[in-house]
Amino acid sequence: MLLHIENVLDAATVARIRAKLDAAEWIDGRETVGPQGALVKRNQQLSDASPLRVELGREVLAACARHREFHAATLPVKILPPRFNRYANGGTYGAHIDGAVMALADGSQLRSDIACTVFLSDPESYDGGGLIVDDTWGEHEVKLPAGDAIVYPTSSLHRVEPVTRGARVAAFFWIQSLVRNEAQRRTLLQLDTAIRQLTGSGADADAVKQLTSVYHNLLRQWSET
């Protein structure tokens, strides 16, 4: 499921984050991947040890936690703290698959079910830089307004096209969902969306309660903790 989530960060928050990132010290992005990823990765990142990465990552995650559609789509149980990257001067990341299991700072492991990118650059400010996600329906190019996010399954082959003008800056992170199966997560999101729309339209309250019961019983059946 490839899902565009609008307005995860408002314009003022994006501007404040960008001001801090524009003044930050960046490192070679190849330092954060294995040997295969290093062959195709040409970008910059904040160091994992950077206090700014921790500060801004908390701000991004707090915004995501307040966003109902983000929660409904991902049903997060664990999240790898966000990283921040920058593509400029031909920067690119060739086709790759994200690692299936990632280490958290406390020594536990995260199963990477979902990838999320939060865009921090207006698309008009740079050329190239599209996120290309390959799924069963073909290739999809994603280049979103600053503050918007894309979530997609980590099983998808994906890449970032070369940036030939300006700079593409983004936050990115991975999520372990309560529901491992992508099709089941899609069904739950569709149910949640229908419940919200019916509630807002003043639909029959008993019918909405029954549909809500179906949602929670499916979540109870499918969830893993």
Question: What key attributes describe this structure?
Answer:
single chain, 225 residues, alpha+beta, eight-stranded antiparallel sheet, 17 strands, globular
Folded structure, characterized:
With 225 residues, the protein is an alpha+beta fold. The protein is 35% helix and 32% strand. It has helices at residues 11-22, 35-40, 51-66, 68-74, 182-200, 205-222, and strands spanning 3-5, 27-28, 41-42, 44-45, 76-79, 83-88, 92-96, 101-103, 109-111, 114-119, 127-128, 131-135, 138-142, 149-153, 157-160, 163-165, 167-177. Strands 1, 2, 4, 5, 6, 10, 14 and 17 form an 8-stranded antiparallel beta sheet that branches. It has a 5-stranded antiparallel beta sheet with strand order 3-7-15-12-13. Strands 8-9 form a two-stranded antiparallel sheet. Strand 12 and strand 13 (138-142) form a beta hairpin. The longest helix is centred in the last third of the chain and has 19 residues, at 182-200. The protein starts with a strand and ends with a helix.
Topology:
Elements: E1 3-5, H1 11-22, E2 27-28, H2 35-40, E3 41-42, E4 44-45, H3 51-66, H4 68-74, E5 76-79, E6 83-88, E7 92-96, E8 101-103, E9 109-111, E10 114-119, E11 127-128, E12 131-135, E13 138-142, E14 149-153, E15 157-160, E16 163-165, E17 167-177, H5 182-200, H6 205-222
Antiparallel strand pairs: 1-14, 2-4, 3-7, 4-6, 5-17, 6-17, 7-15, 8-9, 10-14, 10-17, 11-16, 12-13, 12-15
Short summary of the structure?
By secondary structure, the chain is of the alpha+beta class. 35% of the residues lie in helices and 32% in strands. The protein has six helices and 17 strands.
